[in-house]
Write a structure and sequence with these properties.
Chain A: One of its GO terms (molecular function) is thiamine pyrophosphate binding. The structure holds three protein chains of three kinds. Chain A contains 13 helices and 13 strands. Chain A is of the alpha+beta class. In chain A, strands 1, 2, 3, 4, 5, 6, 10, 11, 12 and 13 form a ten-stranded mixed sheet that branches. A two-stranded parallel sheet of chain A has the order 7-9. The chains are: A alpha+beta, B alpha+beta, C mainly alpha.
Chain lengths: 359, 337, 571
């Protein structure tokens, strides 16, 4: 008789669990079929790597006011790209935004996007969008080196990435990434490598370039997993780091310190967050997705977004709404001139080489 | 009642049972006796249905059971390890088969209590977990469980081998009593000759997958058909060529040099009745004595070879090592193979 | 007769059906995805390429990582066995004061592991950890980054990997026949001699198996090298994860994974061989329960007590900090400082009231629960088949079910994705990617080998004549299974159910590729929260998640071990 009790427990648990899963399943199929206009609600599944620090919640709320029911799937840039590619035969998302132009090139090559034309194309600088109309720019992120103002002054701070390598004083004082999956970390790499393009060198980079990147990693502080580079920056333990421009205000606020911005003469790498519609094949109706992008990319929403989160919008009509800090970054740093096609052709190999030979 | 007809059992290339033919009568207590690995348990498992013979038939009450599923054979079994279900109480163990048959609760209860009384299990013991019982009590549960379904036949596979000597003797008696009361056909497997001789109506002695001798305990003991049976059961002396010729010379016994001659230890005597005309006397010297309580075993040197006998410890026979004795052998007690 | 034929034919049909289903399952989920990923990585352009080999061989980092993984595996076999044996001697063999509480604390590795555990250690020994801060005050010249590299990884893993010792070894000690100890005493052996010459040899088969498992966990170590390994002690698993994440480097991931796989095959061979040699069966019919040994020598007694409580501190400190920090805000957590003003219950309140915070728990509990139940139910059945029909077919079945052991989880996940991201006839043209079932399937596959091994052992541990007895009493196979066999293996079944459940609750490696984007499991959320870009109190939330996870695991373990510890359980 005593045996029966646990058995019953297990069975009960099984029952409850299967019912719950049944519900979950129903839920998802409902959502799948109801992606479009039902009950007057226009629901969309949006994939993004650019919704952290409350941006996702804000977007969901604002979109609801505009009549969209958003379900945001958040993941890091690398994970998001992997996921989109692996789901290409059974995509769940309707819209993806936040990945950079190189990632969108990969998506395009894998037939994951549908071409379209938003209403606001006239408001973005000419030539800034994909000529095949698969994706459009939203927000520009400059990748900037920052330092803790309590530790360095403008004079004592490094002037360029190369300073970190050449000047012994900075040894162990700057953060280097431990993994190169994300866009920000990668742009630091290509920002340095692209200064040494050499068609005859290994993977298109001269020997000197590789020496430099090796020295960069060897002399830096490789922040281990579980440790926070920004916390180290704030505490002065590792007083030099880098970030994407719109991340800066958040870091300063969270850790309560002031960061100085380094503006190398050669310029800073920039990545542009793009938006596109996911190719769902089977008789897809992209009307709601297009409507959402029309709304999201508009000067009004981008302006509000910029105001709220300190981003630097691409939409020329929204730039005015950007915070002073962002404007300042925009003015004080210049964009490094780089061949992005060359980068997207080589970046994976560079990363692999660094992973294998330098880390 | 039970007939084994030309039964053969093979495991791969190994022949476990070779052409076995046996008849067991209704109500009989029949024992399979033999050393381990002789095929007795295999034969038993073939009867119960755990093993399908590669050849031959098993007929019970005129019905061919060779391919009948185990549960349809109505044969109760008691296992060597008892195989009591450890997660159940004594009651649940005994009631198991009755529950399988979907009997009514009250009927099950009635039957379990009835059987428990037969094997002397108390009501308190019935609600205990089987692991809380002693070995002897577990044995009773195993028997009760096998009897609960009122089988036509009950088979017991070395049921007493896990018990101590005293308990073994006691349970042996109870088992025999039980069998007589219930009148149930019983097949019993053992390697213990004493068990076989005391319990059985008839005994089959197994060796290397073959039945060497079937008979009553008296027959297999006193008229062992084969050398193996003679050696396996009781204690026997090999009679050396010299002695057998000496005996032959004194009687009209014919000696075949190709044969071997045996005599059981208790058949060599130190005293014979005066009327005894047949016994031959041999001069012997006492070599050693082993004391067993009710009797002692003596070893003698006879014509350069050795013989052993046993003597009742009644105080009459008290020789010491080195003493000379006269031994008597009656030629009719000599077994030859 | 007719009836018999019917039964026989039914039985045959049933076996055929089972065979077909199993063949399909093995082909579809164990063989095809894995072959597929190997094929696509090494025959990317239609021809076999040796390039990945060259890349890896010429990479100093890769070669060092391989070497390090091996060194770690070997080191752990030594250090964990020493620690594990000591722990078990303290809890079950020697009479130690406070053994009960010690035992409870030594058990804590069962309820937390991975990232959470290593973070806990960081809070004590890391550069801003309590111990480090205290030591730096005493020795100002000391390097606060001392807890890094090989010694740190070995330290963390030595204490984290004793779970199996606590489970298996303590059971083995408990089942020693005390009479052999008494016999040795009677022959004049000293306590030390008894321990070394009598007790430990009995434990040797268990220790052999445990050593093999330890070597495997050292080889595949992930969290500890990632967090405390530093620059000089990198191992292969984190590398595999990195390469698997980059589409163009997956061939390297696959190659490294194959190396792990080959090592696992070798290990599997050793385990099977060790098992064939057999565990020592106690030869005595009348076993006496082992009695705790008092250490007569006062100095030795003191030393053993001392180390028992040092271990107690090592185990209890990280878990205490995790619990304490779960009640603090981000500032305290990121700086590792404690003060009253930073104590808060906000994190708990948020998790219990905010749907987006507790949803991951619900999702993970459902996934883990379903997986545990499905895999245990299926393996109960399959282990039974293997136990019942011991032939070449079942042997190959058993080996097939060990495939998931040979393929690291990450690679298996990728295999499933690249195979079932398009309609495949073998699955009835159902596309699995983007469905809820994909993760469930992967979880189930992942848990098959361990579950099968344990349940098989459970089946073999009982007297086979019980089955005969049930049959003899007229019970059919099913009835016998449900009424006789299942109750016997039930304690083990429940234990493995619990272990499976606990181990999947916060899984990340396998989950990251496969989860349904709208239903994020806990592991993903926890990992995302550790990302530097994560929201302000995400890190604080992680501690709360950790504590709740521990609580759930502890409850589960309690239900299995706490109450019915008297029941026979091979785990």
């Amino acid at each position: 008789m005593r045996v029966k009790k646990p058995l019953l427990l297990v069975m009960a648990f099984m029952l409850v669990a299967s019912i719950l899963v049944g519900c979950m399943n129903n839920d998802s199929t409902k959502k799948d079929t109801a992606t479009d206009t039902k009950d007057g609600k226009k629901s969309l599944i949006v994939y993004s790597n650019s919704v952290s620090d409350g941006r996702g919640d804000w977007l969901t709320k604002k979109a609801a006011e505009a009549g969209f029911e958003l379900k945001i799937v958040e993941a890091g840039g690398g994970d998001l790209l992997n996921r989109l590619v692996s789901e290409k035969n059974n995509p769940l998302g309707d819209v993806v935004f936040g990945l950079n132009q190189m990632n969108f090139e990969t998506l395009k090559a894998n037939d994951i996007l549908v071409p379209y034309e938003p209403k606001w194309t006239a408001e973005i600088p000419e030539g800034s969008s994909d000529k095949d109309k698969f994706y459009y720019p939203l927000v520009e992120q400059r990748i900037i080196m920052i330092y803790n103002k309590d530790v360095y002054t403008e004079e004592t701070a490094p002037k360029d990435w190369t300073d970190l390598i050449e000047n012994e004083e900075f040894e162990g004082k700057y953060h280097v990434p431990g993994n190169l999956g994300g866009g920000t970390n990668r742009s630091v790499i290509y920002g340095m490598l692209m200064r040494h393009v050499d068609k005859n060198g290994g993977l298109g980079i001269s020997e000197e370039g590789w020496k430099e990147i090796k020295a960069f990693f060897d002399n830096g502080y490789k922040t281990p997993e579980g440790e926070d580079a920004n916390a180290n920056l704030a505490s002065g333990k590792v007083p030099i780091s880098f970030t994407y421009s719109s991340g800066l205000p958040g870091i300063e606020e969270e850790f309560g310190f002031e960061a100085g911005i380094v503006s190398p003469e050669v310029g800073v790498p920039t990545t542009v967050e793009q938006v596109g519609i996911i190719n769902k094949r089977k008789d897809q109706d992209t009307a709601v997705a297009e409507e959402f992008i029309n709304w999201f990319g508009s000067a009004e929403v981008q302006g509000a977004w910029a105001e709220q989160f300190g981003s630097l919008p691409v939409n020329t009509k929204a730039v005015a709404k950007a915070s002073d800090k962002m404007k300042q970054i925009g003015e004080n740093t210049k964009i490094q001139d780089m061949d992005y096609t060359f980068i997207s052709e080589h970046i994976d190999d560079w990363v692999e080489k660094i992973e294998l030979e330098i880390f | 009642m039970i007939t084994f007809q030309d039964i053969q059992v093979k495991f791969g290339d190994f022949v476990a049972i070779q052409n076995l033919n046996l008849n067991i009568k209704e109500g009989e207590f029949f024992t399979f006796l033999g050393p381990s690995g002789c095929g007795k348990t295999t034969t038993l498992r073939t009867l119960v249905g755990f093993i399908t013979p590669t050849n031959g038939k098993i007929i019970v009450d005129g019905e061919d059971l060779t391919n009948t599923p185990i549960e349809k054979r109505q044969i109760g079994m008691v296992f060597q390890s008892y195989a009591l279900f450890p997660t159940m109480t004594v009651y649940e163990n005994i009631a198991f088969g009755l529950k399988v048959q979907k009997n009514k609760k009250e009927e099950i209860k009635k039957r379990v209590e009835e059987i428990a009384r037969v094997v002397d299990l108390t009501d308190e013991q019935l609600i205990k977990n089987v692991s809380a019982l002693s070995g002897g009590q577990q044995q009773r549960v195993a028997i009760a469980r096998a009897l609960a379904l009122a089988p036509k036949i009950i088979v017991l596979d070395e049921p007493l081998s896990n018990l101590d000597a005293k308990l073994r003797k006691q349970l042996r008696k109870e088992l025999k009593k039980l069998q007589l009361e219930q009148g149930i056909t019983t097949v019993y497997v053992t390697h213990d000759q004493e068990e076989a001789l005391t319990l059985s109506d008839r005994v089959a002695v197994f060796n290397n997958g073959v039945v060497e001798h079937v008979g009553t305990p008296d027959e297999i003991y006193n008229q062992s058909k084969t050398e193996f049976v003679c050696n396996f059961i009781g204690d026997a002396n090999v009679i050396s060529q010299k002695i057998i010729e000496e005996i032959a010379g004194k009687t009209n016994m014919k000696v075949d040099p190709a044969k071997k001659y045996y005599i059981r230890t208790e058949k060599i005597k130190t005293k014979v009745l005066e009327s005894d005309q047949h016994s031959v006397s041999l001069q012997a010297k006492v070599m050693s004595k082993e004391f067993y309580g009710t009797y002692s075993q003596y070893k003698y040197e006879v014509m350069g070879t050795s013989l052993a006998n046993i003597e009742k410890e009644d105080g009459d026979f008290q020789y010491l090592e080195g003493d000379d004795v006269t031994l008597f052998i009656n030629p009719k007690d000599i077994l030859q193979y | 007769m007719k009836k018999f034929i019917n039964v026989h034919v039914h039985n045959k049909i049933y076996l055929w059906l089972v065979g077909i289903i199993l063949t399909w399952f093995i082909a579809a989920f164990l063989v095809l995805p894995n072959v597929n990923i190997l094929y696509t990585t090494f025959f990317a352009d239609g021809a076999f390429s040796l390039e990945p080999f060259q890349k890896l061989i010429s990479s100093k980092r890769a070669m060092n990582s391989l070497l390090n993984s091996f060194i770690l595996g070997i080191t752990l076999v030594i250090t964990v066995n020493i620690t594990g044996v000591f722990l078990v001697l303290v809890t079950d063999y020697f009479a130690i004061k406070g053994a009960k509480i010690l035992r409870l604390v030594y058990f804590t590795t069962m309820i937390y592991g991975g990232l959470i555990l290593v973070s806990g250690y960081q809070f004590i020994y890391g550069n801003s950890g309590f111990l480090t801060t205290a030591l730096v005050k005493i020795f100002p010249t000391m390097n606060p980054d001392w807890f890094v590299g090989y010694p740190a990884v070995v330290f963390v893993m030595t204490f984290a990997c004793t779970t199996n010792h606590i489970i298996f070894l303590s059971n083995a000690i408990k089942s020693i026949d005390y009479q052999i100890v008494e016999a040795a005493k009677n022959m004049g052996a000293s306590p030390w001699q008894i321990l070394i010459k009598v007790v430990l040899p009995v434990l040797r088969p268990v220790l052999t198996t445990l050593s093999v498992l330890l070597f495997a966990s050292g080889l595949g170590a992930m969290s500890a090298p990632l967090i405390v390994g530093g620059k000089d002690f990198q191992t292969i698993s984190p590398m595999i994860l990195t390469f698997a994440n980059s589409m163009s480097s997956r061939d390297l991931a696959a190659l490294l994974a194959i190396f792990l796989g080959v090592s696992q095959i070798a290990l599997l061979y050793f385990i099977t061989r060790a098992e064939k040699k057999g565990f020592y069966m106690s030869v005595s019919k009348v076993k006496t329960r082992i009695e705790k040994q008092k250490i007569e020598n006062k100095a030795t007694n003191f030393i053993v007590h001392f180390f028992a409580y040092v271990l107690f501190a090592i185990y209890v400190l990280p878990i205490m900090t995790v619990i304490i920090f779960s009640f603090t805000d981000t500032y305290s957590i990121s700086t590792g400082t404690l003060s009253w003003e930073h104590f808060t219950l906000d994190n708990y309140i948020k998790i219990l009231t905010d749907a987006s915070s507790y949803e991951p728990f619900v999702i993970s509990i459902i996934y883990s629960g379903l997986t545990a139940i499905i895999v245990v139910a299926a393996m109960l059945f399959i282990a039974r088949i293997i136990h019942k029909y011991n032939n070449k077919l079942t042997t190959s079945l058993e080996y097939s079910f060990h495939i998931p052991w040979l393929i690291p989880g990450i690679l298996m996940a990728l295999g499933l994705i690249i195979t079932y991201d398009k309609p495949m006839p073998i699955l009835g043209n159902i596309v699995l990617t983007g469905t809820l079932s994909l993760l469930l399937i992967a979880y189930v596959i992942e848990k098959i080998p361990f579950t099968l091994r344990i349940l098989k052992a459970a089946y073999y541990s009982f007297d086979s004549s019980l089955e005969d007895a049930a049959k003899n009493l007229g019970a059919g196979s099913f009835y016998t299974f449900v009424r006789v066999i299942l109750p016997i293996v039930l304690p083990t079944t429940l234990a493995i159910l619990a272990l499976n459940f606990n181990s999947l609750l916060a899984d990340y490696d396998l989950t990251v590729f496969l989860y349904h984007p709208l239903y994020q499991p806990l592991g993903i959320v926890i990992r995302n929260n550790t990302d530097p870009t994560a929201s302000i109190d995400a890190k604080a939330m992680n501690f709360v998640y950790s504590v709740i996870l521990m609580a759930i695991s502890a409850v589960v373990i309690y239900f299995i071990y706490g109450r019915g510890s008297k029941k026979k359980n091979i785990l």
